[in-house]
Predict the structure.
Amino acid sequence: MSDSDIQTVSTEDAAQLLAAAESAANQAYAPYSKFRVGAAVLTEKGVFTGANIENASSNLGICAERVALSHARMHQVTKIIGIAVNCIDAPEVTDLQSGITMPCGGCRQWFVELAPEAWIITNGSQEVFRTQDLLPKPFVLKNSNDTP
Ligand SMILES: [Zn+2]
């Protein structure tokens, strides 16, 4: 990450987005994992949130990040500026658990398509990530400059 990346995320934006993600996590449906996650995306049209929604058929559950991105997409958002992920049930992060609040691989693939320029923060890290940091060699079918 370059210094210019850091400057694109103000401390205020980061704190507000993490707070919105924390609030969203309280709406999670996580009866199986008991691991509630909230996500908030900052866009040109404001903030949109989502929470993880599990299912008895576990592979049918959906992550908070993808719910938030879908929420934004349904409001004709075209620019995702930042994404905050807040895992309110995560234990205090230690070296062994430092990945527990990171977005999963599936969500990273969604970031590539719907939030390629976004910065990403979590409640488990002080780092500011970029989509390309999290998935440097993504699967792509079309030029990202094409608009769907
Ligand atoms: Zn995910």
Remarks:
- The two ends are 29 Å apart (CA to CA).
- The longest strand covers residues 80-87.
- Helices lie at 3-7, 11-25, 64-73, 105-114, 131-134.
